[in-house]
Write a structure and sequence with these properties.
By secondary structure, the protein is α+β, with helices and mostly antiparallel strands. It is built from four helices and ten strands, in the order αββββαββααββββ. Helices cover 22% and strands 32% of the residues. β7 and β8 form a beta hairpin.
Length: 184
Amino acid sequence: MLMQSSAIFSPKPAFAPAPFVVKALYRTSSGDSDSMAATVPGPKWAQKTITLPPHRRGCHLVTSQVLKEIRPDLSEFKCGLAHLFLQHTSASLTINENYDSDVRDDTETFLNKIVPEGRSAPWKHTLEGPDDMPAHIKSSMFGCAITIPITDGRLNMGTWQGIWLCEHRDAPTARKLVVTLNGI
């Protein structure tokens, strides 16, 4: 016998969320004149595909390489978001420590301990070599995209944060990174 609960399947919510108000720091020039927000030009977009040179297996700080490529466009944004998307399935992006390279080495050591590799590993996908399936798993763990706030023409990261490219394959490969900037 199938029973239905009207509380679960009711078309009306059991409670109505309270409305909330968000004060904007910036608004486009067509905004409300009573707002406390500054008047700025309308939103804009910029996009560039960067080819990062081949890196050996491991975690690599690439912040300066990325900034070198996007700085002219980035400087045009007062407030916004930078979205970085890596077009690969055997490498990953993350934000982490930018000062002590031991953190990158230790992260690589950790990844290699938790994702088995070699002939004794249980993976079925081995057509591209024994390091390929582990690379896919590691890539999925960190992901292939990050988003960073833009403030006053700069990436608004913490003092000790940097952009890492994590190369999970044994053979160094150039990697394509699509950077999309959006904001005002």
